[in-house]
């Protein structure tokens, strides 16, 4: 098998060299692009604060596949398994409800010490951590409002939670030597016709300003804000809309988060990257797969995933775009879900790096759209898969679907005992 992969790789290198693409350079570039895996695929967004509670905030993990992680130890073991099957650089994205504490702590009182075991684990794996305040699945978010809440005390509780989260994020960055991107997403919105659409937005704006008022070291912490079109039970009005956060991120120069599932079904985030990059210093991507709505299906190698990766590579946005994932499927093996989705994100990046972009750009400038389309289509069938498999071997992970056997073994030995 290894020999076959090496032979195919040598031939593939020659085929790509013939269209002016340096395969080794592409692989080296790919090595520098971490994908931030989201912890919440492993337990259906339950967390360890109150795992028996209901998932609220207008999001849903459907399915009841056996074996979800029930503790931080189990989640870390599952991540170890998944990460061992995914090539190249990775990070882990934690939500605040994944605190690893021996006693109960409310959200406004979370501290770095409640995440110290995650930091030790990240150090062992030499990976960075990212963070999210969790503004849902809590009694004080039960009426659908958090940072835009009309009640001063409730709003302050969520402001304090986000402030506490920034400290944790900065601690991650300081401990691990790579900035933690902290994403603020709130579910605030209304189910039905809304009369005052302005006041909640004014409150959200002021709350965010208070949250980011303390200057933190950008080497340790990066603020990001995430919009949404609608959530379940908030179909008529979302306070943090795209326009709201686009304005916020451009005026405050925070990073802007684009979640592939948070727009109208005919809108794509790949087309928003070049606009947003004109106004904000950084983007955080939540690569996901919407099916009719923000369904958070596992990422596949579809046209939009490819288009997102191609935008990053064509515009050379390597230092400005943070690539994260956001899906949670409880109807299939959760470790397989991580492996499939993360490998696909990386496959899309590799394919983008193997594109003869300079030549295509030249054709576009010349107005030769026939050749542009012809070459774009021809390169889809160049042997990128041979390069992918060789890259997997270099990273000592299964090159083909044999990773599934390892997941099945783990399922039989570990997950089925839970
Ligand atoms: C867990 C959430 O899905 C996530 O934090 C948020 O990014 C989101 O996309 C909500 O729809
Ligand atoms: Mn998201």
UniProtKB/TrEMBL annotation:
<dbReference type="GO" id="GO:0019301">
    <property type="term" value="P:rhamnose catabolic process"/>
</dbReference>
<feature type="binding site">
    <location>
        <position position="296"/>
    </location>
    <ligand>
        <name>Mn(2+)</name>
    </ligand>
</feature>
<dbReference type="GO" id="GO:0019324">
    <property type="term" value="P:L-lyxose metabolic process"/>
</dbReference>
<feature type="binding site">
    <location>
        <position position="262"/>
    </location>
    <ligand>
        <name>Mn(2+)</name>
    </ligand>
</feature>
<dbReference type="GO" id="GO:0005737">
    <property type="term" value="C:cytoplasm"/>
</dbReference>
<keyword id="KW-0413">Isomerase</keyword>
<keyword id="KW-0684">Rhamnose metabolism</keyword>
<protein>
    <recommendedName>
        <fullName>L-rhamnose isomerase</fullName>
        <ecNumber>5.3.1.14</ecNumber>
    </recommendedName>
</protein>
<comment type="pathway">
    <text>Carbohydrate degradation; L-rhamnose degradation; glycerone phosphate from L-rhamnose: step 1/3.</text>
</comment>
<comment type="similarity">
    <text>Belongs to the rhamnose isomerase family.</text>
</comment>
<comment type="function">
    <text>Catalyzes the interconversion of L-rhamnose and L-rhamnulose.</text>
</comment>
<feature type="binding site">
    <location>
        <position position="294"/>
    </location>
    <ligand>
        <name>Mn(2+)</name>
    </ligand>
</feature>
<dbReference type="GO" id="GO:0008740">
    <property type="term" value="F:L-rhamnose isomerase activity"/>
</dbReference>
<keyword id="KW-0963">Cytoplasm</keyword>
<dbReference type="InterPro" id="IPR009308">
    <property type="entry name" value="Rhamnose_isomerase"/>
</dbReference>
<dbReference type="InterPro" id="IPR036237">
    <property type="entry name" value="Xyl_isomerase-like_sf"/>
</dbReference>
<comment type="subunit">
    <text>Homotetramer.</text>
</comment>
<keyword id="KW-0464">Manganese</keyword>
<dbReference type="InterPro" id="IPR050337">
    <property type="entry name" value="L-rhamnose_isomerase"/>
</dbReference>
<dbReference type="Pfam" id="PF06134">
    <property type="entry name" value="RhaA"/>
</dbReference>
<keyword id="KW-0479">Metal-binding</keyword>
<dbReference type="GO" id="GO:0030145">
    <property type="term" value="F:manganese ion binding"/>
</dbReference>
């Amino acid at each position: 098998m290894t020999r076959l992969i090496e032979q195919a790789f040598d031939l593939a290198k020659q085929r790509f060299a013939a269209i002016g693409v340096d395969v080794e350079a592409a692989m080296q570039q790919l090595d520098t692009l971490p994908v931030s895996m989201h912890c919440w695929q492993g337990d259906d967004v339950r967390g360890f604060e109150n795992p028996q509670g209901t998932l609220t905030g207008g999001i849903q993990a459907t399915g009841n596949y056996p074996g979800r992680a029930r503790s931080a130890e189990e989640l870390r073991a599952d991540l170890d398994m998944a990460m061992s099957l995914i090539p190249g650089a990775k990070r882990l994205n934690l939500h605040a409800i994944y605190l690893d504490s021996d006693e109960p702590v409310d959200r406004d009182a979370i501290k770095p010490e409640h995440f110290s075991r995650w930091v030790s684990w990240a150090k062992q794996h030499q990976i960075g951590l990212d963070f999210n305040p969790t503004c849902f699945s809590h009694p004080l978010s039960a009426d659908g409002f958090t940072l835009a809440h009309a009640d001063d005390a409730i709003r302050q509780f969520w402001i304090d939670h986000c402030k506490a989260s920034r400290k944790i994020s900065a601690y991650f960055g300081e401990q691990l030597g790579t900035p933690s991107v902290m994403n603020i997403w709130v579910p605030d919105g209304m189910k039905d016709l809304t009369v005052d659409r302005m006041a909640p937005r004014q409150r959200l704006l002021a709350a965010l300003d208070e949250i980011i008022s303390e200057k933190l070291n950008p080497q340790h912490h990066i603020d990001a804000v995430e919009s949404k079109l609608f959530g379940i039970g908030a179909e008529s009005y979302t306070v943090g809309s795209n326009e709201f956060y686009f304005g916020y991120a451009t005026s405050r120069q925070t990073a802007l988060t684009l979640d592939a599932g948070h727009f109208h079904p005919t809108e794509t985030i790949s087309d928003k990257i070049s606009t947003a990059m004109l106004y904000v210093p950084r983007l955080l991507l939540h690569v996901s797969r919407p099916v009719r709505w923000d369904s958070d299906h596992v990422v596949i190698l579809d046209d939009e995933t490819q288009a997102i990766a191609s935008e990053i590579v064509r515009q050379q946005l390597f230092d400005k775009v943070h690539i994260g994932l956001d899906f949670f499927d409880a109807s299939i093996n959760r470790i397989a879900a991580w492996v499939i989705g993360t490998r696909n994100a990386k496959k899309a990046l590799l394919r983008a790096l193997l594109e003869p972009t300079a030549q295509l750009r030249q054709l576009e400038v010349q107005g030769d759209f026939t050749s542009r389309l012809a070459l774009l289509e021809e390169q889809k069938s160049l042997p990128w898969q041979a390069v992918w498999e060789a890259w997997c071997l270099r990273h000592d992970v299964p090159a083909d679907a044999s990773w599934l056997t390892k997941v099945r073994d783990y399922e039989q030995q570990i997950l089925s005992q839970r």
